[in-house]
Amino acid sequence: MSLSRRFVVSLLLLALVVSVGTVGYRLLLHAPWLDGLYMTVITLSTVGYGEVVPGLAGSVKGRIFTMGLILVGMGLLLYVLSSTTAFFVEGELTNLIRRRKMEKAIARLRDHLIVCGVGSTGQHVVEELLAIKENFVAIDASQAHLDRLLAHREFLYIHGDATSDEVMIKAGIERARGVLAVLSNDKDNLFVTITARQLNPSVRIVSRGSEHGIRERLVRAGANAVVFPNHIGGLRIAAEMVRPRVVGFLDGMLRPGGETWRIEEVAVAAGSPVVGRKLGSLRVEERLGLPILALVEGEDRQTRYYPSPDMVIHAGASLVVLAEKDHIERLRQLVARG
Q1: Which among 44, 152, 292, 332 is most buried, taking Cβ atoms within 10 Å?
Q2: Model confidence at 22, in pLDDT bands (50, 70, 90)?
């Protein structure tokens, strides 16, 4: 039994004994309710100011009842005292308050990300999202995985099964803009994908994969993209050998601490005032010091590297730039407000 449940049970038992004592004095000795309650309290507390209930001194049944009340009450009070001490000393109340605070913070999130799994792959996902200051909720069934990350940083999390509808709803799946399924097992990631797609048809889902045959199943289940860490790791090892300086440049962007430069994309919504304007009219490099590396547009995601200033911006296009987080926010505002 958890400490919180033990604490509640002990209080309920104490209330029950007080009620039984009060009713007992009322039925056995016809004592007024207040006198019965008073006699019960001073008996249980072993204070013993005196017998305030009329007729108790000459009543055998009354005395037997009182002795039983004392024996039961003393044992119960010791139980209540130990439960209360454990509840406060062992931090259960503190943990309860922290959980409630976290639940309220999660309930306030909008357009956030949900990271399902903080194991060998998920922990790096969490670290990256913290570095770029993205709002997210992490879910993991292993408290040890969560504690390992929480020892060095703070973030919103839920200790539970990410394949559960209830847990995903608690994480705000209906309000989320993205789900990252990075559990260690392909089948679990498949279940997460199915669950997330059913609960939020418009959410973007990126799933981890181990076996290449799982890609088609994940895509059919609703995943927008599937990433194979082992495959990417192999490419990285080869690149480290043949292009070490390029890899070092990319590593510099992802290195913890210092400036957090990233290659980011800024989407152009259908209602944006920049739709139909020429790219050069935004003066992105002049205003923000950000050169536009590429313009991605069309359903086939056609990429135009170093686009001409005369190119017209269409709805749904994305501007790809190399920038810090603050610059990205300013660029998003520029695209949104024109």
Answers
A1: 292
A2: confident
User: Can you name the residues that pair with 205 across neighbouring β-strands?
Assistant: 179
Residue-level pLDDT at 122: 93
- Asked if the model's pLDDT at residue 52 lies above 70, the reply is no
Looking at the domain covering 3-90, what would its CATH class be?
mainly alpha
| Contact between residue 195 and residue 163 where contact means Cβ atoms under 8 Å apart | yes
pLDDT digits (tens, 9 = 90+) for 151-191: 888 999 999 999 999 999 999 999 999 999 999 999 999 99
Class of CATH domain 261-337: alpha beta
User: Would you kindly state where each structural domain of the chain is located, as residue ranges?
Assistant: 3-90, 94-227, 261-337
- 94-227 against 261-337: fold identical: no
Strands in the chain per DSSP E? 113-116, 136-140, 156-159, 178-181, 204-208, 225-227, 262-267, 292-297, 302-305, 318-323
Q: What pLDDT was estimated at residue 256?
A: 56
Quick one: how far is CA 104 from the chain centroid?
10
Class of 94-227 in CATH:
alpha beta
Number of Cβ within 10 Å of residue 330's Cβ equals 15
